[in-house]
Design a protein that fits this description.
Layout (H helix, E strand, L loop, with lengths): L3 H33 L1 H31 L7 H30 L7 H19 L5 H56 L1
Helix pairs in contact: 1-3, 2-3, 2-5, 3-4, 4-5
Length: 193
């Protein structure tokens, strides 16, 4: 026969497990709210814009040095090195964002082709950015096209922001219609009296 101490231990273990599970669930829900927020979409829009600007700067530097025929200018190497660091930083950030998003939303995050393709672009960009410091440097120019995909992400972020605003306006319209109907009813009652 189990002692009272054993029963208390089992109950304590059950409560602790339930507490951890609910804390984990609350944490995922909280992260989902943050990832779905307007502020997050605007922050992503800002980061993607800066990343696209750095990609365009890389292209501009490549065009200028090619046109001049001299890559030995003193400013070229530091500028390219700095832009590579910026590119790797953004690739790392977007990879971290992808991992957190998949954790928060689960596999259903990839239910749309946009998220699937965006995930592939993020992973490929990150891998190429990591390997772009050696033999793979020539192949790295292909990733510029992939990274420019992030420009499409800007459009997506803007459309998400617009749809959120539309939802807010729809709620407000419903509230005003309800209030209007209520006031009309009062007017009719006052006029009938």
């Amino acid at each position: 026969m189990a002692s009272d101490t054993d029963q208390v231990s089992v109950r304590t273990a059950e409560v602790t497990t339930t507490s951890r599970t609910s804390r984990y669930t609350r944490c995922r829900r909280w992260v989902r709210c943050i990832l779905s927020s307007r502020k997050k979409h605007y922050a992503t829009l800002l980061f993607v814009s800066i990343d696209v600007a750095s990609i365009l700067a890389e292209i501009l530097i490549a065009l200028i040095t090619c046109d001049m025929g001299r890559r030995d200018e003193p400013w070229v190497e530091p500028a390219e090195g700095g832009l590579q660091i910026v590119g790797l930083s953004f690739s790392s950030f977007f990879l971290l964002e992808l991992l957190v998003t998949v954790w928060a939303f689960g596999p259903r995050y990839f239910s749309t082709w946009f998220h699937c393709f965006d995930g592939v672009v993020i992973v490929v960009s990150f891998v190429v950015d990591l390997l772009a410091h050696g033999i793979v440097e020539e192949i790295a120019s292909l990733v510029v096209g992939f990274r420019l995909w992030r420009f499409i992400k800007i459009v997506n972020e803007l459309s998400v922001g617009a749809s959120e605003r539309i939802e807010e306006f729809e709620v407000k319209v419903r509230q005003l219609e309800h209030e209007n109907a209520e006031l009309r009813g009062r007017l009719c009652e006052a006029g009938a009296s």
